[in-house]
Amino acid sequence: MTQDRYSRQILFAGIGAEGQQALLNSRAVIIGCGALGSAQAEALARAGVGNLRIVDRDFVEFSNLQRQTMFTEHDAVERLPKVIACANHIAEINSGIAVEPEIADVNYSNIERLVAGADVVIDGTDNFATRYLINDACVKHQKDWIYGAAVGSYGVTMTIRPRETPCLRCIFPEAPPAASAPTCDTAGVIMPIISVVAAVQVSEALKLLTGDVCSLHKSLMQFDVWRNEWRKISIGQPLNDCPTCALGRFETLNPEVREFAAVMCGRHAVQISPSESVHIDLGALREKLAPAGEVKANDYLLRFRTGEYELTVFQDARSIIRGTDDIATARSLYSKYIGN
Ligand SMILES: [Zn+2]
User: Fold this and answer.
1) Which residues are catalytic?
2) What's this model's pTM, rounded to 2 decimal places?
3) How many CB atoms lie within 10 A of CB 103?
4) Could you tell me which of 253, 273, 254, 271 has the C-alpha nearest to residue 262?
5) Which residues sit with Cβ closer than 5 angstroms to ligand 1, an ion?
6) Which of 103, 185, 201, 321 sits in a 20 to 30 Å window from 233, CA-based?
């Protein structure tokens, strides 16, 4: 069955039977399971990468379905966490591989654990703060990782092999204005650019996992599928004075300010995370909140509506509060309804 399933990929000279076995023995870690992450997950699952750890903090919404091809209307109605919906679909696509879904906000406290054991780490996130975190953890632990981003009709990707190639910080000492200003929520995005960026990222992952590093594209690739522009920019060598890959300062892993609350750009929502990891009993919380408003829950999260606000609470006590961009308002709703 295995031979048949992967027969076309084994026929492909770049992979072959040995490469296929290497893929089956590999673990890929996908950080973020939105449009890029779910496209990467599907492709790697079909290719037979034996173990996929997929991490995401969010749940499926109808506004995702235009480009996040892994998800269905059923997932949005059920408000399934993206990684759970993704794991469910992968089980139907390829039951022969293992998926480790992680419902989590990626931050300084968990990123090193999340990339541990990875043969490759793939960027499916939508923000530079998380990418610097991935860069620090991957350089520190010498993990290859593949940066990728898409907004509007534009996309970019680069493969980082710590100390062999420039790292993200060598190329972007600070978050580029073009990447931090418009996000998918404010500027929109079309699905074809997702397909292009994910396709290049997945190709690079397959090369890395089969040991064919000579075939990597060794550049910063930029695409615009609306303006019909494709560019391959040479990236040269790692910088001698890069704080991350030359000097080994991993500032995002030891932050001075450990953010407890963050505005979710363009979502009209704020995320509140508890400062210590806790596990909350969603059933008990449901009973407590029932008299105060409309409550719905599934196995992974609870949704509570009160007035103009909607609180989504996860088992780790993290909450996404929709209906405000104001952290103080979100904090007071959190302490009123969920606790400190
Ligand atoms: Zn660097």
Assistant:
1) 184
2) 0.86
3) 21
4) 271
5) 167, 169-170, 242, 244-245
6) 185
